[in-house]
Amino acid sequence: MVFTIEKQGIARWLEKLLETSALIAPVRGPCGDVVFSTIRSPDQVLWNFGNPLHPPKQFVLPQTDPIVAIKRNGQRHEVEPIHDDAPRILFNLRNCDAKGITFLTQMHAMEPADASYLRRSNSITVISLACNTPCPQGFCVCTDSGPFLSSGYDIQLTDLGEKYLAEVGSEKGEAAISGVVNLFRTATGSEVAQRKTLEVKARSHFGEETCHFASAMRRISTGRVQDALWDKMSDWCLECGACTLACPTCYCFSVKDLRRDGGWIRCRLWDSCQYGAFTLEASGHNPREQRKERMKRRFFHKASAQYYMRDGMVGCVGCGRCVKVCLGTTDMPAVVGAIRKGKWHE
Amino acid sequence: MNDVFLPDIACLEKVRDETPDTKTFTLRFRDRQDGNHFHFLPGQFLELSVFGYGEAPFCIASSPTRCGVLETTVRRTGQLTDQLHRLGNGDEVGIRGPFGNGFDVEAARGKDLLFVAGGIGLPPLRSLIWNVLDEREHFGKVTVLYGARTPADLVYKDELKEWGERSDMEVLVTVDSAGPGWTGNVGVVAVLFKKIMPHPDSTLAYVCGPPIMIRAVVQDLLTRGFQEEKVISTLERMMQCGIGKCNHCAIGHRYVCRDGPVFNYREIAELVE
Amino acid sequence: MLSIPTTCPFCACGCGFYLLANKGQLVGVAPSETHAISAGRLCARGWSAHEAALWGDRLRRPLLQHNGTLGPASWVEALDHVAGRIRNLIDTGKSVGILGSPRATNEENYLAGKLARAGFQTNNVDFCFHSLCRPLFEGFEEVSGQYSPCMRLNDIESCQTILLLEGDLAKTHPQAASSVMRALESGAHLITIGYIRTQMARLSSLHLRTTPGNEGAVLNGLVASVLHLGLEDPTSVAVHCEGYDALRRELATAKMTEEMHQAAACIARAKQTAFLMAPTSGQGDQPRKDAAALATLAAITGHLDKPGSGLLPLLARSNVQGACDMGVAPDRLPGYEPCDGGQCRHRLQELWGKELPSARGLDAETLLQSVSGVIILADDPPSVLAMGQRAMAAMAKIEFLVVLDAFVTPTVTISHVALPIASFAETDGTLTSMEGRVQGLRGTTDPPGEARPGWQVLAELCTRFQVDASYGSASDVRREIAQAAPRYARTEQPESGDGWGGTWVGDSDKRKFRLSATRVAALTSAECPHVLAREGTYDWGRDPLVSFSPTLSRDYQSQRKLFLNGLVEICKQDADRLGLRAGWLVRLTSVHGDAVVPVRVRMDLEPGVILVPYAFRDHVASVLGTDSIAAVKVEQT
């Protein structure tokens, strides 16, 4: 279903949504950074912005995520799952992030499904805005995650000038506009055509050299990347883990029990395959002792045919965060480029 | 959809010392007295919570043929296992599982079975051994080769004796260095191979133990003509969730907790790190 | 969800990020693109900064020791007890002291110093890490007149040459390593000097190999090369430097190599050169002389006090600079001014309304071994001091030991009084990074239990000693600091527009650079042909912010578990020559004594060097004596 809403109508829509949900949108924070934050009024929403470095995956997978409450009474223990199914709407996300959340949901819905994650994600509605002018660091065209999505969204908005086109792609999307149907009217043929034109124009912004993903994927999947290349590249990595922590599709975690009065709270914590101790065994043996092995692991998970076949999606949404947050110089585009060329820094 | 991180509460019913640093714990589910809901295959593992110290994976050492009995053999290596060793009868732990692929018991029917274990490698095989012994008529020859560093380090000492006295299986035990009173074999497990003649075509070999031992034994088996698919082992990795989501145990796109921990050598060779 | 901008509490790079909290509990960390140093990037420690405060073993209420065990007490009871006992010790002529901390804020350190000097009338004030970084400051000060750096961290990226002396930068100061990498990608040259082929060394254009204690040979060689090749900056030498001729004479016979020539050219000809230095090993005053030599190299090549160039001391911990600036030193006052300096003492006496002691106090190591009463602020001496576990034994003999900390450390367990203070995530205050940037900590969550901000607790103690401490907030303390240490008042404009509000510590007056060469030490002999060196200056594994972080503590815990009997590291060539394999035992013998430890083989170590990681120094204490290096004989056992 495709609708349009006048730009003046957005405030009314958001006010309606605020009645029943927490509303999270990009805002400008106190130190000038753009961050995703809970808003109380529609005018807090930032429309023109660079994508926040901290991805919205924090709303489906917090960095510290309490999942089980363990109570102790003498020698006896009781356990209970911790429920978080508060209704939330993530508003004005970029499509790369929307796709990221779709990816994470798929990972956690895979058998055996993770109820704790799904309780939260089932109560989250994602409303994204397609990028008419793609960001300079993004490469979403390579990963089929933007600038416009063809499926896998709750509501996809497109800026048509005086109004937004709203493509509703799910029941949750429908529910999000059900309270304000009067603000939305069915889109006309020319409006839909305009959206298609905007997509073509947006895609044309990406240059020829953007997309080496496929070629890198081929080499990664068939083990044809020279060990010496990984060795060289890994010297430019400072093992900060930011690439994985800021990545909308990464979800490695550890589980630990947090001591609280009367017992513990079992929490899931963000972890990273880039950290040395990620694969460290109790015996002291570490199958990925060297940094190059960990780097190789990351790119296999993100960009191998084997994972692509398993997941139906590539493990990257081309948001470009890893470029900005990498403490070293080994972001996705740099490594993908090096793999394709067969050399680093030459 | 399940609360996959929610443990069942179990009580320690029996604690047996195996070696100075290894104990076997018999677990009984507290709220599901019969334990019938916990169906497992030999070779699978469980995630055991020692409340306040975390959770760790341990292989199930008992056989599914024995209803209501759940055993695991644990060596003391760190904070969690240290605390576990301090617990006694009636103390509670958490259990999640069973996880992993387990051994293909069906495929072993009618075959001769060779079990080769070193040190703490015997517990995962014990589950399968007892499964086989409990359904003895379905399987061919059963041979167990087991070695440890010293006589004190042998696990399941009583059972080894019991197995040794059975007429329907052959058991050979060795130690790297003998202690006073030891009258058995001395030397690494590989030396026991000289005493047996496994038939590569009709035998399945199960090998568990320290990496060095496994390497030597597998080499020996392959040179004797064993096909890689007939040599089976369990892989060790750091594991946390047990359900293939936390990614700690990933090897390429395979997960030791889901696609393993049981792998045959052909599969191991194909694993891309 | 709360998102509070604050400063990183780990190393001294001075990154900033947002601490995230939900329903009063810390959840995580988010990066900031606008922060001048971080620019959206953090290291692994920064990304897990929230963990220790959340997961750590926290001190929640004041504890008093009764019959050998610590039991809960009220604040009033605890503070009165502390004041009473210390007053008693002072009145009976016994010595007391206070140890500040490089993981405490400027406000906390300042008040610790004020309490000691104005309250207890003693200059027995120091911090455990001081002896390891003092040589850097004193060496720089000797030459440039300034002990604190003149280089900005962000300028590293635009340097054409970077000289890195020791320090595994990628591990100790990842953000600085990041700047170096960016400079390299723009075509800069990195010259490393060291005895380990670190990650930075692998990225270098030139790696000058040394052995521990012998960095002086390379430094002298570089200075000599500049002189020999006529590469000195004539203006700098003529106008700003003193002692040029003496330097030439002293270095007339210095050994030079082709590599040193190349390095010298690279350093001298670059428009902007960064000189990054971690404290070197060496006996006695060798580290100080090495620092002076590096400053001399910068001075004669015209890079000292030149915008975009300069020296940067690689300080391990977030507030080493701040602790020094606050006068947490037995011979220095706020502003790092000498204790007997007339003007400074006069100003402070006016400000604090009290006469101040002029006699130099005891340094941290001596203090712990000789005073009857000590207050330790947010530190655990056995894990920081080179003397390691011997500090624990020394502290056990102290008549009255008080600790202020957020975390339960080993020192807390043997204290007579433990006062719970807020962690970095729960308090306001400032930290001064290694480049002299003063930045704010902002509390995100409430301190647990009855813990209070450290500055408040110290203020209460001050009041009990009739020292004026009526502060309503950490900002009030900061305002007083600006009066006590004018360097902290003379701040430049805060960084424009980013809202982070960092300010610079003011420059001191200009003076001539006093050039100085270092000594070349001959340590080894035929009898003791190897050098045993303590690697690094800080055991991160024992720092509460790491040891209590589930994500960060794993590697360290595993190492400690695997090497219960200690560890030394040796290179493959030496291992082969001595017939050693990993895990085997060696006996190390020096003039001080001997020890038997397991050995591990490293591929990136210079031959002739035996390394003991800082975390395992206790096991070879008998071999090292009081130095960080010793010539040893190595035998298989």
What is shown here, in short?
The complex is a heterotrimer of chains A (346), B (273) and C (637). Chain A is an alpha+beta fold and 346 residues long. Chain A has two domains: 186 residues, no CATH class; 129 residues, no CATH class.
Give a verbal description of the structure:
The complex is a heterotrimer of chains A (346), B (273) and C (637). Chain A has 346 residues and is α+β, with helices and mostly antiparallel strands. Chain A contains twelve helices and twelve strands. An eight-stranded mixed beta sheet of chain A has the order 3-2-6-7-8-9-1-10, with helices on both faces. Chain B contains six helices and 15 strands. Chain B has 273 residues and is of the alpha/beta class. Chain B folds into two domains: 92 residues, Beta Barrel (Elongation Factor Tu (Ef-tu), domain 3), CATH 2.40.30; 130 residues, Nucleotide-binding domain of ferredoxin-NADP reductase (FNR) module (Rossmann fold, 3-Layer(aba) Sandwich). In chain C, the strands form seven sheets. Chain C has a seven-stranded mixed beta sheet, with helices on both faces. In chain C, strands 24-26-25-28-23-27 form a six-stranded mixed beta sheet. The mean pLDDT of chain C is 93. Classes of the chains: A alpha+beta (346), B alpha/beta (273), C alpha/beta (637). At the A-B interface, strand 4, strand 5, helix 3, strand 11 and strand 12 of A face strand 4 and strand 13 of B.
Profile the largest sheet of chain A: 8 strands, mixed
Describe the main β-sheet of chain C briefly. Answer: 7 strands, mixed
**Strand runs of chain C, count:** 28
Helix/strand-derived category of chain A reads alpha+beta
Terminal CA distance of chain C reads 60 Å
What's the number of domains of chain C? Answer: 4
**Helix segment count of chain A?**
12
